[in-house]
Specification:
Blueprint lengths: L2 H10 L37 H6 L8 H18 L4 H10 L1 H6 L8 H16 L26
Length: about 150
């Protein structure tokens, strides 16, 4: 899948910043992961866990269109949940929103998650986005969400 096709998919599938799809950070090497299973069970291009895929009605996580739709919808939900805080949305995408909430709406102290937030956050900043324009949806604070237990 080309960068152009992926960005078009992000526009269609409610990306976090649909008015500015070129500002959505995408790592071109991720295309290689579109058919791979991650070490903890994450699947496809956007590395969806099985419970997250079910939550967003993704039947086949290895189908690029379904995977991008589910992943971008999840990211949009996280940005809304954390009032546009990109760092917390990224931490939640990596470790789960329950972990971020349990740590007082802070990035959890897991090295993998902290590295992920730093690495992807830097790409996001380089792309020209800011936390202020990252998400235009109204802020909605969600209490402890009911999370499905993820198993690889």
């Amino acid at each position: 899948m080309s960068q152009t096709a992926l960005r078009k998919g992000l526009r269609i599938y409610a990306a976090p910043s649909p008015a500015q799809p070129d500002r959505i950070p995408i790592n071109p090497t991720l295309n290689q992961r579109s058919k791979k299973l991650g070490p903890k069970g994450a699947r496809g291009l956007m590395q969806l866990m099985p419970g997250t895929a079910r939550r967003f009605a993704v039947r086949n996580s290895f189908d690029l269109a379904e995977n991008v739709r589910g992943g971008t919808q999840y990211l949009r939900e996280l940005l809304t949940m954390f009032n546009g805080r990109v760092d917390l949305a990224l931490a939640s995408y990596n470790a789960g929103e329950g972990r971020v909430i349990n740590y007082g709406n802070k990035v959890p102290p897991f090295q993998e998650t902290q590295n992920y937030v730093k690495r992807i956050g830097q790409r996001y900043k380089k792309s020209g986005s800011s936390q202020k324009d990252a998400h235009k949806a109204p802020a909605a604070r969600v209490a402890q969400p009911a999370l499905a237990k993820e198993t690889p």
